[in-house]
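for ur thesis appendix - Lipoprotein. copy paste whatever u need, i formatted it the way the template wanted (i think)
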Amino acid sequence: MKTPSRLSRIGLAATLALVGVPLLASCSTAGDLVNGAVQDATGGDVSLGGALPAGWPAEVPVIDGEILFGAGGADTHKGWAVTIQASSTDPLGDARVQLEDAGFTVDAAAQAAAGGGVVAVKNSTYIVLVAGTTEGGVLYTVALIPAQ
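the 3d part is after this line
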């Protein structure tokens, strides 16, 4: 099994935090602009609010709140992303607890803070990165672990 190095995982988490977290603040506007382009480019499922994208893994729980944007890959659903405006006072902490309760293991090396924070978890099937802002915006990125 080939796994990313600790440095590459930290880099990925930091990149997600620095790039993804600012997008949470304007995701409804961004969603309107991106919807057609994403569907044309990927043929994937895009939701501009209210629902998880088609094929979202049932074993990946999400926190309560308003789903603002969701997208899933077109080919065998190998990846998904969803943004949520959380109703929780500690959305990132709550997301982490939910994922741990669902059997995911936290990767302590792949956490970062940039206007919020990032938590990385995995199980035998999925890698999940959760980025959160101090305003309650949460971005879940889910990837299928490739077969060995």
